[in-house]
């Protein structure tokens, strides 16, 4: 069923695994991720950035597409449709109105008080209709769609501020920026585990790890043990699917039927997602 993230993340945190947020970019991504979730018997979060929503034809089309595919594939595992890095109250409301079951309000570029005010307003509206909310503090480096944060501007969240934001807003889950990066890492990631532990102890809510692509398994395990119950992955599916397209086109200069390269792209995404679900421990937990 289509559900909010609330219950699935509480369960994940309690039982020591993380639910993957896999970003969708088109029909094939959506098909692959839903099939992977059902085959792994795993809860799943479909992440939709504002850029990807524009690309696909808007929030309503996405909700319709997801619902139809869930019916077509007899999906029984819990699925959330989540606005990724929502940039404003308006965008969050539009997503909720279209049928999204979860939203992120990313007020991380605002001063703390403004971020809290904005997040509070989103929570008030979202919770009235059973939609879950994620917030962010600190700044996650790297690039994802419209969002680019230079290394110099990225900074780690401050635990006392995280505590204040979570307490005053009532968000369901929370993403403290602690050194993870959107897109490929330059070298090994350097995650702030001490602060993650502090934030977990202070806030008590399920934590979210953005920039899940390229984080070594040992760090994934550690993050989960420190309360990270949601891990976002986008770039890795993009890389694996693009590689599959490249392989087909390089091997066959005559191919013109898009299904001949988009089918393999879809298979590659599915494999990537299944691997992550096993790594995060969410397989078999639906
Ligand atoms: O919000 C989405 C993510 O944090 C994805 O990060 O593209 O590095 O996997 P990634
Ligand atoms: Zn992110």
From TrEMBL:
<dbReference type="GO" id="GO:0030388">
    <property type="term" value="P:fructose 1,6-bisphosphate metabolic process"/>
</dbReference>
<protein>
    <submittedName>
        <fullName>Fructose-1,6-bisphosphate aldolase, class II</fullName>
    </submittedName>
</protein>
<keyword id="KW-0456">Lyase</keyword>
<dbReference type="InterPro" id="IPR013785">
    <property type="entry name" value="Aldolase_TIM"/>
</dbReference>
<dbReference type="Pfam" id="PF01116">
    <property type="entry name" value="F_bP_aldolase"/>
</dbReference>
<dbReference type="InterPro" id="IPR000771">
    <property type="entry name" value="FBA_II"/>
</dbReference>
<dbReference type="GO" id="GO:0004332">
    <property type="term" value="F:fructose-bisphosphate aldolase activity"/>
</dbReference>
<dbReference type="InterPro" id="IPR050246">
    <property type="entry name" value="Class_II_FBP_aldolase"/>
</dbReference>
<feature type="binding site">
    <location>
        <position position="106"/>
    </location>
    <ligand>
        <name>Zn(2+) 2</name>
    </ligand>
</feature>
<feature type="binding site">
    <location>
        <position position="136"/>
    </location>
    <ligand>
        <name>Zn(2+) 2</name>
    </ligand>
</feature>
<feature type="active site" description="Proton donor">
    <location>
        <position position="84"/>
    </location>
</feature>
<feature type="binding site">
    <location>
        <begin position="232"/>
        <end position="235"/>
    </location>
    <ligand>
        <name>dihydroxyacetone phosphate</name>
    </ligand>
</feature>
<feature type="binding site">
    <location>
        <position position="85"/>
    </location>
    <ligand>
        <name>Zn(2+) 1</name>
    </ligand>
</feature>
<feature type="binding site">
    <location>
        <begin position="211"/>
        <end position="213"/>
    </location>
    <ligand>
        <name>dihydroxyacetone phosphate</name>
    </ligand>
</feature>
<feature type="binding site">
    <location>
        <position position="183"/>
    </location>
    <ligand>
        <name>dihydroxyacetone phosphate</name>
    </ligand>
</feature>
<dbReference type="InterPro" id="IPR011289">
    <property type="entry name" value="Fruc_bis_ald_class-2"/>
</dbReference>
<dbReference type="GO" id="GO:0006096">
    <property type="term" value="P:glycolytic process"/>
</dbReference>
<feature type="binding site">
    <location>
        <position position="210"/>
    </location>
    <ligand>
        <name>Zn(2+) 1</name>
    </ligand>
</feature>
<keyword id="KW-0862">Zinc</keyword>
<dbReference type="GO" id="GO:0008270">
    <property type="term" value="F:zinc ion binding"/>
</dbReference>
<feature type="binding site">
    <location>
        <position position="182"/>
    </location>
    <ligand>
        <name>Zn(2+) 1</name>
    </ligand>
</feature>
<keyword id="KW-0479">Metal-binding</keyword>
């Amino acid at each position: 069923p289509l559900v909010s993230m609330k219950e699935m993340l509480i369960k994940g945190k309690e039982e020591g695994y993380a639910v993957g947020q896999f970003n969708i970019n088109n029909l094939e991504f959506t098909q692959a991720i839903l099939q992977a979730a059902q085959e792994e018997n795993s809860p799943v979060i479909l992440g939709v950035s504002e850029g990807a929503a524009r690309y696909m034809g808007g929030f309503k089309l996405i909700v319709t597409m997801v619902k139809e595919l869930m019916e077509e594939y007899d999906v029984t595992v819990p699925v959330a449709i989540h606005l990724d890095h929502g940039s404003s109250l308006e965008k969050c409301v539009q997503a909720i109105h279209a049928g999204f079951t979860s939203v992120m309000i990313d007020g991380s570029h605002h001063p703390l008080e403004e971020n809290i005010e904005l997040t509070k307003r989103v929570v008030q509206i979202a919770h009235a209709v059973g939609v879950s909310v994620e917030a962010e503090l600190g700044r996650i480096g790297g690039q994802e769609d419209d969002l680019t944060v230079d290394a110099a501007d990225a900074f780690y969240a401050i635990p006392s501020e995280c505590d204040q934001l979570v307490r005053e807003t009532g968000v369901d889950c929370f993403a403290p920026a602690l050194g993870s990066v959107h897109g490929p890492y330059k070298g090994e990631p350097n995650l702030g585990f001490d602060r993650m532990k502090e934030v977990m102890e202070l806030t008590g809510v399920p934590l979210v790890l953005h920039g899940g692509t390229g984080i070594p398994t040992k760090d994934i395990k550690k993050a989960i043990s420190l309360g990270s119950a949601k891990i976002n992955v986008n770039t890795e599916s993009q890389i694996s699917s693009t590689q599959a397209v490249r392989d087909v086109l390089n091997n066959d200069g005559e191919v013109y039927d898009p299904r001949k390269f988009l089918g393999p792209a879809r298979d590659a995404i599915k494999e990537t997602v299944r691997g992550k679900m096993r790594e995060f421990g969410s397989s078999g937990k639906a």
